[in-house]
Specification:
3 helices; mainly alpha; Membrane-bound Lytic Murein Transglycosylase D, Chain A; 2 domains; two-stranded antiparallel ribbon; 2 strands
Amino acid sequence: MRGSRAGSSDMSAWCSAVVLLSLILLLSVRENNASNSIRGSQFSTKPCEEIYVVGEGETLHTIGDKCGDPFIVERNPHIHDPDDVFPGLVLKIAPFYFSRKL
């Protein structure tokens, strides 16, 4: 009888461990899905960082408007043709804000 109790408690311990690990795995997968990678145009709700990666469909004009940097071409000497902007291109951004006096 003593051996069956030990076997039963071992089995319940293993089941509890499996359930706990399953919950941890499920929650970590769910958290990763909620925080998908953010690129390019999806940054619109976040302020622009000093380094910006161009997203699909973006132009220097739209990035400049969004980030407040009208001098992107001047700050990025690796851009030879402003019309040749492609997804994945890395840009240096320095936001420029106009101060208005009322």
